[in-house]
Design a protein that fits this description.
It contains two helices and no strands. With 73 residues, the chain is mainly α. The chain has one domain. α1 packs across α2. The termini are far apart. The model has no long low-confidence stretch (mean pLDDT 74).
């Protein structure tokens, strides 16, 4: 229900004055697009965040202090 209300509001703002049908179509399209794209965007963002954390942890685990490295002399 919230999506329909938000879509109608967005459509009315995009269409301007005296363009009711045009605003309704734009609002319906915006609500449908948001319903399909927001979950996918959230999943991709979560996967990217998790991959970044994994890489940071992996890079931090392999780093040794300079005094722990074998000397070349």
């Amino acid at each position: 229900m919230f999506g329909k209300i938000a879509g109608a509001w967005l459509g009315s703002k995009a269409a301007g004055r005296n363009n009711g049908a045009k605003g309704a179509l734009i609002g319906f399209g915006a609500a449908a697009l948001a319903r399909r794209s927001i979950p996918a965007l959230a999943i991709l963002s979560a996967l990217g965040w998790g991959y970044r954390k994994y890489k940071e942890r992996r890079a931090g685990a392999a780093a040794y202090p300079p005094e722990a490295a074998p000397s070349s002399s």
